[in-house]
Design brief:
One of its GO terms (biological process) is homoserine biosynthetic process. The chain has 13 helices and 16 strands. By secondary structure, the chain is an alpha/beta fold. The protein folds into two domains: 205 residues, Carbamate kinase (3-Layer(aba) Sandwich), CATH 3.40.1160; 147 residues, VC0802-like, CATH 3.30.2130. The model has no long low-confidence stretch (mean pLDDT 93). It binds adenosine-5'-diphosphate (ADP) and aspartyl phosphate.
């Protein structure tokens, strides 16, 4: 029998009726042995995720009125799940204990991790699987990175002693035993780590969309589903905001050769998207998908004969390093170089520019804030003549001004920078250009 790890996201476990769907899915396939739940997510667009309520509880732990308001909201949600499913879980005691710890000054990581912790206990009881606390199997080292040796050895040992288990997502424990969380969306990473630890045959990631779509469904109506996508393509799209999978999920499973299948809890018959390590067939449309993200600033540095100046780029990067800033892209011309930076990373743009001026003595520096980047991705792109022409024609026809262009040397990706206000229109234009028959 094969072994599958199934991660269920917050929308998949947002209320009791979603829990019922999840149980049916798990029971349909005996190979679904190890289950990783997130905390209950939004039940509808206006709702608040449990994780966000926990952040609010932390922020307002000194304000009795607001604290009680947020804590009561999350308490009500767990109690109704347990009651509606008629489970024998001492939920009031569990919540009371957590409330006490928050009021006694528990850490932020401990508090927000409780969303997954409680959900894991409830789900384990509901499906009759063992509950294993992630704090006992996922470890971080002193640098805050995953302690791979300790983690994988422990997972392998503990989970080989259990035929099945529910392991809550999103957290593990620090070198000193304290709870430490991953970044937001991190239950995907937990699922990936468990999949590697048990050497799973498949990592299933159950969410609220039928797999990876060619574009964000909140921008494009009913985008086509991608049946198969390579890790490389997915990485490019995730990096640029296609947020189905946390970007750190991909590498551990890629290295272990475990395929990922994205599935829809609300449409379990749909085969979803298979993420594979390599594909030799170019996609039908020449592109696999398009994704975009706001919040970038471009700094363009111009200097005549820059190309002959040894160490020019190093000097720029040294300034970035000093400011603790990484770059997203670095397109260059003969006499220009553009730094594409995440705006939120730039604390003091004036001193940054001043230091670049002092180090590089450029002829001019231009700062362009408010940029959105859009990645059009697909292995098919390099085999299809006219693919770039189609993209730029579509943008021109929609009056969208392109501020920057970058094509990675892998040729599976064309990046364009547009003004933030144009992001949605640009994504729609590109999507339509490759999916509408001509
Ligand atoms: N290209 C895309 N394909 C599918 N979903 C996308 C895409 N880009 C963005 N999304 C969004 O990602 C969401 C799923 O990710 P997430 O909210 O993290 O789910 P979960 O709570 O199940 O972990 C979808 O509801 C959708 O709005
Ligand atoms: N609950 C955490 C972790 C997570 O992965 O959630 P989800 O699977 O609902 O994106 C968060 O909101 O960040």
């Amino acid at each position: 029998m094969g072994v599958k790890v199934a991660k269920f996201g917050g929308t998949s476990l947002a209320n009791a009726s979603q829990f019922i769907k999840v149980k049916e899915i798990i029971m349909q396939d005996k190979e679904r042995c190890f289950i990783v739940p997130s905390a209950p997510g939004k039940r509808d667009k206006e709702d608040t995720k449990i994780t966000d309520l926990l952040y609010l509880c932390y922020t307002y732990s000194d304000d009795v009125k607001l604290f009680n308001e947020y804590f009561n909201q999350l308490q009500g949600r767990y109690i109704s799940i347990v009651n509606e499913l008629e489970l024998n879980v001492p939920i009031k005691e569990i919540l009371e204990e957590i409330k006490q710890k928050i009021q006694d000054g528990a850490s932020l990581d401990f508090i927000v991790s409780r969303g997954e912790y409680i959900n894991g206990i409830i789900l384990a009881e509901y499906i009759g699987y063992e509950f294993i606390d992630a704090a006992e199997i996922i470890y971080f080292n002193e640098d805050g990175l995953l302690d791979q040796n300790k983690t994988y050895t422990t997972i392998n040992k503990l989970l080989s002693e259990n035929d099945n288990a529910v392991i809550p997502g999103f957290y593990g424990s620090n070198y000193n035993g304290d709870i430490k969380i991953f970044s937001r969306g991190g239950s995907d990473i937990t699922g990936a780590i468990i999949a590697c630890g048990v050497e799973a045959d498949l990592y299933e990631n159950w969410t609220d969309v039928s797999g990876f779509l060619m574009a964000d469904p909140s921008i494009v109506d009913n985008p086509q589903q991608i049946k198969q996508i390579t890790f490389r393509e997915l990485r490019e799209l995730s990096y640029m905001g296609a947020s189905v999978l946390h970007e750190e999920t991909i590498f551990p499973v890629l290295n272990a050769g475990i395929p990922i299948n994205i599935r829809n809890t609300n449409d379990p018959e749909n085969a979803g998207t298979m993420i594979i390590s390599y594909s030799d067939s170019a996609s039908r449309n020449g592109i696999t998908g398009v994704a975009g993200k706001k919040g970038f600033t471009i700094i363009t540095i111009e200097k005549n004969l820059m190309n002959y100046e040894v160490g020019f780029v190093r000097r720029i990067l040294t300034v970035l390093e000093k400011h603790d800033i990484y770059f997203y892209h670095l397109p260059t011309g003969i006499d220009t170089i553009s730094l594409v930076l995440e705006a939120s990373q730039i604390k003091d743009i004036h001193s940054l520019v001043k230091e670049i001026q002092a180090e590089c003595k450029p002829d001019s520096i231009e700062i362009i804030p408010g940029i959105a980047l859009i990645a059009t991705v697909g292995h098919g792109m390099s085999y299809t003549p006219g693919i770039a022409a189609r993209l730029f024609t579509a943008l021109a026809e929609n009056n969208i001004n392109v501020r920057i262009i970058d094509q990675g040397s892998s040729e599976i990706n064309i990046i364009v920078g547009v003004e933030e206000k144009d992001l949605e229109a640009a994504v729609r234009a590109i999507y339509n250009a490759y999916t509408t028959k001509i």
